[in-house]
Amino acid sequence: TDALVIRNLRVRVEGKEILKGVNLTLPKGEVHAIMGPNGTGKSTLAYTLMGHPGYEVVEGEVWFKGQNILELEPDERAHLGIFLAFQYPVAIPGVTVANFLRTALNAQRRARDPEDKGIPIAEFRKLLKEKMALLNMDPSFGGRYLNDGFSGGEKKRAEILQMAVLQPEIAILDETDSGLDIDALRIVAQGVNALRGPNLGVLVITHYQRILNYIQPDVVHVMMDGRIVETGGPDLALHLEEKGYSWVREKLEGDS
Length: 256
Ligand code: ADP
Ligand code: MG
Ligand code: MG
What we know:
single chain, about 260 residues, alpha/beta, Rossmann fold, 6-stranded mixed β-sheet, binds adenosine-5'-diphosphate, binds magnesium ion
């Protein structure tokens, strides 16, 4: 089966090594969560996977479909089937959510087949309607201007809808700790739960300990000091929720 495979990833930010050898395999069809204390490099991993220029890869590879995606431009990663949630966070004046999504879908189709003429409007409307129904979204949302005065929750809704329309094979969602916006997290969780299936692998990076109230990950990873130091099932998240991270730290110190 296809998987996103991160091997010994070391990344420097502003001259400082933040990721110190991350290893992680995310197979299609599974939902994985990365948890960990603040400042341990979770967002650095997300930015590196999206190809943000400020993140200098010192060593390592990230394989998907036989390619090291670290050698690809961000849009090439997207066209390969990798979705990075915060890739299009801008407000575009006068562009509706529906038009934006149709443009994004057509760009993806053309990247895969230069002869592609774009999805016919009627077919796109049907697709959008189906996906919005699947995600329990009000159809009027498609007519809103993109990111124009969107709340945090509405931005998330647009992001999840984009994911539903583009149908990626791997999705990486970094739920930032800005205000621990529970509404936004709930929207993401409902979206992931609705879209999860054998053709989609999801990596949810969370700063929110009680993620299990919202998403049931198949696998939970703990990141600490730039490395994945524990991997387990949902019970690991429960344990972290109860006991915090100190036991992981102690165990690490005991090992070294
Ligand atoms: P997390 O998401 O786990 O809270 P981050 O990846 O955001 O952690 O940050 C890891 C470390 O890298 C922190 O010490 C942070 O200060 C530093 N860092 C991250 N991004 C930048 C950046 N763009 N410029 C400078 N330092 C950064
Ligand atoms: Mg942080
Ligand atoms: Mg972060």
